[in-house]
Amino acid sequence: MPRLVSTFLMMSRVSGLAAGGGFLRKAADSLRAASSGGAPPPPALKLDGAPSWDALQQALDAQTSKEEVELAKQVAEGRGPPTAKANLRLFDAPDGYEPRVTLYRDGASWCPYCQKVWMQLEEKRIPYKVERINMRCYGSKPAWFEQETGGLLPVVRLDGDLITDSVQIMFALERAFEEESLLPPGGIDAIRDLMSLESQHAGAWLGWLRAPPGTGGAGKATYERVLTQMDGALASTSGGFFLGEELSLVDLLFCSFLERAEASLLYYKGFRVRDVEKYPHVCGWFAAMEGRPSFRASQSDYYTHAMDLPPQLGGCAAESGGEAARALLDGGEWTLASLAQQPLQPLRDDDASAAKRRAARQLIANHAKVVPFACRAHSPPGVPPVMAALADPNNASPVRWHEDDVDCALRHVASALLRGPASIARQDNGDDPAPTAKALEYLRKRVGVPRDMDYEAARQFRAHLTWAMDEVTA
């Protein structure tokens, strides 16, 4: 999958954008809609009053601190803190250094196995390059990749040699870069029991997540038993990590599935892994991990995982008891009022102003692609279809009926993020506002964490999109 840094595609990509404007563009949209059974484009709403993108950029620049400017410069040079957007990480290596390692990982940042290797490279500060490859559930892979690797992710090219399987990759990296080892003195033999426990957790989690309701609670009981064992293993050490006060390879082996278990079991089963009364040491482990920049940069949010796991796993079974969590994660928390409340997923950073700036920065920098992408809400499904309902790389031609209004609405969103919400004025001539609101909703559902922005920024962005939808349809 090509680099998706400059687009808001929750599980998709923009390509083949319709060219032209005015009469020709509307005529082309009419033909496309007619061929798919849709209606011809209605008149535009003529939204008014939003600042220009240039003015919004100037407002953002005025609010951006020198520290934020310097941070962006460091990231662009392959240095600074980890980020999902980086294609090159040099750490302390000199400019122009050619890394020995290339990491092939999925472009949407969904893959749990890629996350483990990604974090290991960051924790060991191994210079590396990134190449993004589709997961099968949202697109095809390059033919050369299928032929040389079998198609599974992640893959690492180390000194020219391709290595597959995340665990094999991680041990190969430990051997090749022995400094700052993430293994204990006893090596792999010292962690075999914990590796076995991690495997048991993966099986118990996936078994319950995919088990249909009414199976007698066996899946839940098995998962609770394994989670209790994990809590006990963490209780036997100090410092929050599995081997004590220092993060180790064991924590990287556990991190991806524990993160996804917390999100998915809450959404589909109404069960909390981060239950401080039942599993206090697991909760302490999450807190310790969220203190690591590598984990924060690769960590997703509950909504993204709830949506990305079903196409990867072939489905997840929802049970009664999870309705309240599903309602909140499907949009109940995506309101301005909800921003003042404690969300289901703990915040890692309570600086709301900074989160708003990060969201605005992504929108302003990428508006030329974001606007037509949102207009894909009116396009027919892509052919051939993909398993991920919110990921359709083949549906890449937007029906741009309301592009001017969508552009204006998103400028209002950016302004609200930077200056606070204000009414969105429009000329109401009986035109239907629903298509514009639908485009905003389409975008809101497809913001991916951490690919497009971090959790706190996405929370702000989704809530402000909801505000704009309400304003447009008021």
Topology at a glance:
Elements: H1 22-35, E1 47-48, H2 53-63, H3 66-76, E2 88-89, E3 101-106, H4 112-124, E4 128-133, H5 143-149, E5 155-158, E6 161-164, H6 166-176, H7 192-210, H8 218-235, H9 249-269, H10 280-289, H11 293-298, H12 302-313, H13 323-332, H14 352-365, H15 367-374, H16 403-419, E7 425-426, H17 434-445, H18 455-473
Parallel strand pairs: 3-4
Antiparallel strand pairs: 1-7, 2-4, 3-5, 5-6
Low-confidence stretches: 1-38
CATH architecture of the largest domain: Orthogonal Bundle
Radius of gyration (Å): 23 Å
The main pleated sheet reads as:
5 strands, mixed
- How far is the N terminus from the C terminus? 39 Å
Give me the CATH fold name of the largest domain.
Globin-like
Which percent bin holds the helix content? 40-55%
Mind telling me the CATH class of the largest domain?
A: Mainly Alpha
User: Average pLDDT across residues?
Assistant: 89
Domains (count): 3
Could you characterize the architecture of this molecule?
This protein has 474 residues and is mainly alpha-helical. It folds into three domains: 177 residues, Globin-like; 100 residues, 3-Layer(aba) Sandwich (Glutaredoxin); 126 residues, Glutathione S-transferase Yfyf (Class Pi), Chain A, domain 2 (Up-down Bundle). The protein is built from 18 helices and seven strands. The strands form two sheets. A five-stranded mixed β-sheet has the order 2-4-3-5-6, with helices on one face. Strands 1-7 form a two-stranded antiparallel ribbon. The N terminus is likely disordered.
